[in-house]
Every structure is written in C-alpha cells, then in structure tokens.
C-alpha cells in the first residue's frame, strides 16, 4: 500500500520517550492529510547497473552513460595529459575490483 502525506512536519526523534529507534519522526497537525493511493506503481531502482568487466571489455556502447557498481580498490595521483588537438585534460586513474 502507498500513502500520500500532506501538511506535516519532520523533526529529530529525541527525548525520554520515543516510539521507535528511527532518527526522525513525523509531526501531524490538525491540517495534516493522509490518503491511500490506489494503482500506484512503486518501481525499483532507477539505476541500470552494469559490471565494470562488461564496460572495459569493449562490448559496451560508450555513447551512453553507465551506472557501474564495484569495489573501489585504489586511486592514483591526478595528472594532466595533452589531447590530440593540443588542449590539456586532467586524468585520475581509479582501480575497481571487477568481480566484487
């Protein structure tokens, strides 16, 4: 079930008596409105995760951005390289564990 909340506050859940262990709480007002929403599709993740091994294998279409998941295992020092047209670009090499 999906609900819509209007006209309420959010505050830190502190004090001596708390109903949950959550960090925040909802504060309802006289003007607060809660409605059940019917036929609402709550989708999954907005990401289309692609293994880094697929990207670096050369079979991925590099015309499109990609969401990559992996374990960062190292970061190199930033350096500048000169492009073919004479302009410079900053480069930083990172290492990812492909099967992580």
Oligomer: single chain
Rounded average pLDDT:
85
- H/E element string? EEEHEEEEE
What structural category do the secondary elements indicate?
mainly beta
- In angstroms, what separates the terminal alpha carbons? 35 Å
Radius of gyration: 24 Å
> What ranges have pLDDT less than 50 throughout 5 or more consecutive residues?
none
Count of DSSP-assigned helices: 1
Shape by Cα distribution: elongated
Protein name: Replication protein A 70 kDa dna-binding subunit
Organism: Trifolium medium
Keywords: DNA-binding
GO molecular function: DNA binding
What does this protein look like?
Keywords: DNA-binding. A hairpin with a 5-residue loop joins strand 6 (79-82) and strand 7. It is built from one helix and eight strands. It starts with a strand and ends with a strand. With 100 residues, it is mainly β. Helices cover 5% and strands 48% of the residues. It has two domains: 2-37, no CATH class; 49-97, no CATH class. The strands form four sheets. A two-stranded antiparallel sheet has the order 1-2. The radius of gyration is 24 Å and the shape is elongated. It has one helix spanning 52-56, and strands at residues 2-12, 24-37, 49-51, 67-69, 71-75, 79-82, 88-91, 94-97.
Brief account:
This is Replication protein A 70 kDa dna-binding subunit. The chain has about 100 residues and is mostly beta strands.
């Amino acid at each position: 079930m999906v609900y819509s909340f209007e006209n309420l506050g959010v505050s830190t859940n502190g004090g001596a008596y708390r109903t949950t262990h959550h960090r925040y709480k909802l504060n309802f007002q006289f003007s607060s409105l809660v409605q059940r929403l019917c036929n609402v599709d709550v989708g999954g993740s907005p990401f289309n995760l692609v293994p880094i091994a697929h990207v670096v294998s050369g079979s991925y279409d590099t015309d499109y951005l990609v969401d990559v998941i992996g374990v960062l295992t190292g970061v190199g020092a930033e350096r500048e390289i000169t492009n073919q047209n004479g302009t410079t670009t900053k480069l930083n090499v990172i290492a990812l564990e492909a099967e992580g």
